[in-house]
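Why do we bother with holo predictions? Because pocket geometry can differ from the apo form. Keep that in mind while you read this record for uridine-diphosphate-N-acetylglucosamine.
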Amino acid sequence: MIKLLTVIGARPQIIKAAALSRAVELVYSAAITEKIVHTGQHYDDNMSKVFFAEMNIPKPDYNLKVGSGSHGKQTAAMIKGLEEVIMKESPDAIVVYGDTNSTLAAAIAGSKLHVPIMHVEAGLRSFNKSMPEEINRIICDHVSTLLFTPTEAGYFNLISEGFKEGNDGPYTVDNPKIHHCGDVMYDNIRHFLEQATGSCQLFEEFDIRKGEYLLATIHRDNNTDDPKRLTSIFTGLNRISQEMDVQIVLPLHPRTSKLIKKNLDPEIYKQIKANEKIIMMPAVSYLDMLALEESSVMIVTDSGGVQKEAYLLKKPCITLRAQTEWVELVDNGNAVLTDSDENRIVEAYTTLLNKTNYSYPDIFGDGKAAIFICKEIVSTLSADKQ
Ligand code: UD1
Ligand code: UDP
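The structure, written out:
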């Protein structure tokens, strides 16, 4: 039996981990036993607890309860807590997701204790090291033993950083194995979409007109923490809603809820609050989010996960960033990068709305990434044990 320690902490990781836990439970329960550590990076019920309940994720065996803090303070507390858990549990491998401080902490704590790191969502690069996530993902990739890329671009990024293709085992941190396997978030969409669209009450609750609204999420630190950028984004959204008479639905990340009060230009804040077409609400559950995405006409976001979900649900996407790790979406014309520029946001809305020749090649695999990941973990670790 292989013992995996899964480390999660932030909302998107809890969501991604659901796919692997489901594959373990349904297909690999005889080969894999999973222990789950929640670092406590996200802790509000609507940023954490809600996903465990609705996505049927096993309750974490540990919660380190690190909470919020500066990068150093938060990451250090996670490393300390994770080191203790890893020493106690002696797992065969540690599974980490994406690029948050929880990912980084697990990669550092685990690799220094010589436990192989399995990185799901490896290889992505924005080529912008002012993003904390870019630092986290580069470090994590370079101490990992198995690396699972969600896109071909991710796979080729790893090759250009010196990772080898087609190398033979045994696989170790010094001889890592890279796999392109598609995205576990696609697995989740396939599994949950029907249930999500059947259960969402938000349309009645907020009087949202299905099929006509723009869905927006904003949480990236460089957008929320900079008053100029945040004001420019909200001015763009306000203009779209007024000039084009369209509702904008905005489930707010707690970071954004706090910072719009502090960082938005007071006049824009007043206008947004008075604009009935801008519908703000606290962050919603995964099923509600899928339902909101599915019935939207377009998505505006700086989220990594939401950019992908837009594509997988065939919605055009205005990406509130200067660059993206999901380059295929821009290259294929499904998404437009506007950074935080008010005018570019408004123009992108019109451009994407009027565009007719959308196509959706299989960028994110076949929706069976979690099964592939389990299979490779089992075959690699079983070979080690022999
Ligand atoms: C983190 C990740 C980011 C990811 C995002 C997903 C890092 C460096 N960043 O950003 O890559 O895209 O999660 O959502 O790891 N807060 C609450 N309640 C919560 C959680 C957060 O109020 O349950 C507030 C706190 O004021 C906190 C702020 O949000 O200071 C930011 O939280 P934090 O986890 O540090 O970063 P995120 O912006 O969520
Ligand atoms: N999400 C959610 N509720 C919300 C906003 C987003 O469940 O109110 C989901 C979304 O569907 C996606 C994931 O959270 O699956 C993306 O996480 P987030 O935007 O927090 O982080 P990122 O992907 O940018 O790291």
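DSSP finds 17 helices and 13 strands in the chain.
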